[in-house]
Structure formats: C-alpha cells, structure tokens
Amino acid sequence: MTYSIEKVTTLIGARRYGDQAANIGFLLTDSRSLCFPEETLFFALKSGRRNGHEFIPDLYRRGVRNFVVDALPQDYATTYPGSNFLKVISPLEALQRLAERHRDEFNIPVVGVTGSNGKTIVKEWLYQLLSPSLSVTRSPRSYNSQIGVPLSVWLLGEQSQVGVFEAGISQPGEMQALRNIIQPTIGVITNIGSAHQENFPSMEAKVDEKLDLFRDASVIVYPGDSKEIASRVGERSFKGDHLWWSVADANAPLYIKNVEKGETSTTVTYIYNKVGRECQYTLPFIDEASIENSITCCAVCLSLGISAADIAGRMPKLEAVAMRLEVKQGQHGCTLINDSYNSDINSLDIALDFISRRPDHKGRRRTLILSDILQSGMTRDQLYAEVSELCVKRGVEKFIGVGPDLMAEADRIGVGEKYFFPDSQTFIKSPVFSTLRDEVILIKGARAFGFDGISELLEQKVHETILEVNLQAVVDNLNYYRSYMKPETKLVCMVKANAYGSGAVEVAKTLQDHRVDYLAVAVADEGVTLRKNGITSNIMIMNPEMTAFKTMFDYDLEPEVYSFRLLDALVKAARREGITGYPVHIKLDTGMHRLGFNPKTDIDELIHRLQSQNAIIPRSVFSHFVGSDSDDFDNFSKMQFDLFDEASSKLQAAFPHKILRHICNSAGIEHFPERQLDMCRLGLGLYGIDSRDNHILNNVSTLKTTILQLRDVPKEETVGYSRKGHLTRDSRIAAIPIGYADGLNRHLGRGNCYCLVNGQKAPYVGNICMDVAMIDVTGIPCKEGDTVEIFGDHLPVTVLSDVLDTIPYEVLTSVSDRVKRVYYQD
What we know:
By secondary structure, the chain is α/β, with parallel strands linked by helices. It is built from 28 helices and 43 strands.
C-alpha cells in the first residue's frame, strides 16, 4: 500500500515544506536500509548517539526526497530542491502515529506478543502454524521496540489475513504507544522474568506494564500457573476471554494433561475445555522453553479456529528459530559458542541448555566464560546462587568469571574448576587463557566487558606472510573510472572473493566512505561479514544460494535472480518470513550463457510472475558483456546491448517504480561510455588492473614474506620434494614461509617465475611446498629476516598471471585467508 505525501502529512499532523508530488510506500529510520529512495519517507530520529538529521545530505544524494524532521535544514529549499520536509515535534511519535493510522485500515485478527523470553520464537512458530491456511504478516526479526513495532505494522497489506507482532519494553510507560499501534485482538504474554527489572519499582509493576498491551483485546493467552501473571490478570478485569493454560488445574480453559518427552520429541496431551475432548500433538523438541512456547502457540491457534487435527499435523513440522548464538571453530580443538550480546539469567539458561543438547559436544569438557550480570533486579547473592545452580544443572565443568561482582561471589559458584579475574585483559594475559584446549566454550557476557575481543583472540590466525593493501590506490582507481562516467550514473563496486583477495571489510569501508552506491559480493556469507563489520551500504549478492535466503533477509542483502526456480523459491521464503517488497536484481543472459533469464523468451513470463506477488520487487536489471575488453567483439557487444536494451525497457515499463539498468563492467565503462545507462559495475579496475590491456593503474596489493633461513648448497645437489630443483652451480638458497596453501601456485616453481629480494630477481627453486618455498639468492645481498616481494609495487601481478597463462583475477583471489592483511593509506 502507498499513501500520497499529502495524506501522510495529514495523518501525522505535520507542517509541510515543499510541494513535490510523491507516493510513500517505504518508511526508513536507518540509512543503511535504503533501497527505494523514490518512494521512501525518512524519519530523522534522535538517540543518545546519533541525530538522524545528520544523514539527510547523504540520503538526498542517494535519491530520497521526503523527510520527517523536527528542525528544517538550513537553506532547505536551495540545498535540497525538489524535496518535501514534514516538520513535527517528534519524528518518533510521527512514525508511531502513521503506523497507528495504517493499522486502522485493517479489520483482521492481530496477535500481540509480549513477555520476558520467547516472544520471537512464539511469533515465528505462530507463523509456521498459521501460514498453511492464512496469509500472515509478522514482525521481521526482533522488531519489538518503539521503532521496530511501527515498522512492523506498516508491513500490513491487502493480502494480510492475520498479523502477529512482538512488543518489548524496558521502561515504564512504553507499552501504551505500542498498544495503540498494534491494537491486538488476541494478546499473548509468554512469561515474566528479571530482564529490565531495574527500571521498574516491582515485579507487579512490570507485569502491569506488559498487560497494558491487552487492554482492548478480545482474547488474552497466558500461563495460568505463573502466580505473578495470573494474579495481576485477575485484578485487571479484562473484558475479553481468558484463555489461560495450566499443567496443574484441570479446570483451566486449556488443560495440559500430560507432557511425555522422548529422545528427540515431546508429545503434549491437552483438553481444550471449550470443546471438551482430549487432543494431542508431537513437538520436535524436548527442552522446557520449547514445550511452553508450543503450548502458547496451541492456545492462539485454537482461539483463531485452527482445528486440533491441523495443529497435530503442523506441530511436528516446526523448525528451530535461529537466535543470536554463534558457533565457531576456535584454536587448539576448541568450539566457541559466542553469546556476547546480552547478559541475563534467562538467556544464560537458554545458552547452557543449547550446549547441553548439541550432539557434537558430547564427551568434551564444557567451559563457561561469564561476565558480571548487570541490572538483574536481584541481590548479588541471589543472582550468583542461581548462576551456580544453572551451571551445575547444565554440566559446566570449568567456570571462568570476569568482573568484580563474580570475584566477590567466587565461593558461591559450585563448579569444581573455577577461575576469577577483575577484567577481560587480566584474563587474556593469564595462563588460564593460553591453556584452553579441546573444550566447548560458551562466551557469555555484557558488551561492557569486551567479550567480543575474547572471542576474536580464541579464533585468531597468525602467519608471517602478509598482503599489504594500499587503500589510497583503491580510491585513486575508483576516481579514475568515475572520470569516465556521467555524474548521475550510479556505481556498483565488486568486493566478492574477499575483495579480489585484498580484504573485503577494509576495502568496503573505504568504498563506503567514498559514497559508492552498491557493493557486490558472490555469496551471502560474504555480505554477512561486511554487515558485522559496520558496512551499511546496499549489498548485492551475485550468486545467491537457496539455503541462504534467511541470512539475506536478516542482513538486508539483495540477491540476484536469474531463473524461475530461484524466483519461486525466493518468493516462498520471503512470504514465510512475512516480508514484502524485498529488493532483487534481475539478471538477463544476452550472450554469456552462464546464468540469466532469456530476454527473448522469458521476459513476458518474468513480468507476469513478478506482478503476481508482492514479496519481492525488482530494484535493478542487468547483463554481462562477453568481450568489452577487446575491440574484436564490438559487433557482438552491440548485439548484446540491443537485446538488453529492449528487454530491460520492457521490464521497466511494467512497473511504476524506477528499475536501475546496468550492463557495463570495468572495461565497458571506458570502452562504451554511451552504454553506461543507470549504473555500472567496477571490478578488476578497482584493484588497479586495466582489463583492456592488463596494464597497472594504481597497484593495490603487494604480497610480501620474509627470509626464514639461508643455506649454501653445492652444485649438483637438489632442492625440494622429488629432487626437482637441480643446481648447476654452488648456490645460496633461501627458505621463505609461503606456499601453495597461501596461494602461491606450484606452477611458478622449478624456475618458471621469480620473486624480488632487495629489488633483485630470485627464481623459485624446485617444487613449491604447502607452507614453504625455496628461492635462489646467489649473488643477492640479503640476510635472514629480509623482505621478499611475491608480487606488488615492483613486480606486477600480471607477470605471474602471464607465466601461469591465466588472468590476474586468479592470482589475486588465490591469496589464502590465512595470509594476514595489512592496510595503509598513502
């Protein structure tokens, strides 16, 4: 659904400055999520760290023309021509009010979910249980805050038959705004715990605040065996039906008669007293939290008229909901469970339960590294007595406590092997840290204690060979190609394959600082790495895998779509996530015959399928020149462009929003300036190699190592495996710590190529080994520890690629991840 800018102005009670016509379909509070600037309304929110008004210049440059502000920018009419500024007292309240008015348009069942734990799982499981028969719109991820809730409710559309939205609070008075926005017809409270208790005068006050969400609900679902919840519900005099569940009271509206756990599943027998007969379902989980969440979901399904038979058929198919726990391989045979995102007693229990149930952890020592738990709402002795009980119950064998509170309560921790440190750095420098071996380690702590650093060190890689990356050269190459482009033409920069071996994170940060429009990677994991390292630019996934759809949704990564099979699967996955209008990039095959829709035979069906759903939306359409690097293929390139031009224009004509068209790569930018269209893609040229003639522009990457050892070897001796290095003179041989595991191709050995030692050529002798190569430094002044250049500023990478009869791409991208990257800027 879209609203005219005039209607939006009225709905939020704003004063409008500007008279630009616009339709609003997308709300934006985070500039990193911008995708469709033409229909975006940006709310300039203020927080303790940032003022959203600071992002207006960049968003304007990227095409946004509609802004909600509490203060007009200076000289707004001349600085931002063609824009609308909607001035309000509070952009946050305006966002909430717009979502509230949008919610008024829908007369459908809406489930509001709150509680201390389990909100996201209940929401996701309700989607899985309801979606086979109903079109469900739900909160994406954990959008349950004062900002997340209005953004979630805005997703309601014409296809929505039921809404499921989370509501989370941390301060008194927050729930009223969320209630007005969600307006739940069915209210769900999962449980009550100590999270954020420090902000409330009592547990009763916190329960009352959460229950305020359900003031006007027709049905309220809650655990009747929870005294804290049941007593407060009883005193609130809710007008709606009370659908509470109990394992103890046979008179409960939903009586849980029996819970029988197996090895991998649980069977729940229940009586829904409104019907009066005994029913059951089987759940593919056995932990207590999952069982309670499934009962809550069962109650909601029953209230919505889902039959017991359908519930029984759907419950066994429930899938686990991925939360924030990250499993990583660490050093010295350790497995790391990184949960250094939050620190409270409930999430600690969940994380410990996670470890205890992983089959690959059996027989290995369980270690917990825990920081002080802040703001628990409990006294210190109560808190750490409970921590101790959890550790013992979950089988923790080694306990490492970090923080003054844990040090003070050391005697209370009942784990046999235990160590305590005042801070993270003291722990890192201790023998306890250096002797972690063959353990499953849960890293659980508040960010204030720097636990991310502990995780990074436990998985740190160390290697003497380095790749020096000149970030200023990246900028110089970027500007070189920009000089061939029209100012309005957008640019996609390729950072796939770890930025052609240069290190995607640092290169992406540099490109982001220099305002490129898109970054492109090959697979979703590469995009996740960028997001986790603070990259906020739009990211395109060039080779999306069907197993990674959820990852792409979670991290705002935009996939290429090249086939109907991929299109259908992506639409299905987006619907399952409750997503609408997700941006994708349509690929046409105009002659490469690698991937892509056929522009002659597929375009009409493609348009039909795209128009028949609202889960995804084409943001761009593109193709690849086969031979823009050679004049020999100019006729073929013209045929490709004409084919692309016709098909992409037809696709654009079928949609009202702007679809970016792009076909030029690095060589095409220079060779075909008239074909640059809306956007171009910069790849190899960014890394300093002109693909038209392979000459070096500004060298970006220099692969260096050092001389480990020097030895004198007499003539007629051999060097290396299989005695392939035959010496014809008395020689001085240097061993250098780089081999084919680092990306040094074996075919460069046996004298086929050379490196540079103190500026002089030193040929490779014998076979290159996995971790070491030998070079002939006879007559070259050098010593152990001297630098060796494999390729770079003085030895172009094209020398190696020519010897290997390949392209520079292969040499650059072959540099192993174990090679340390060192970044600098001239």
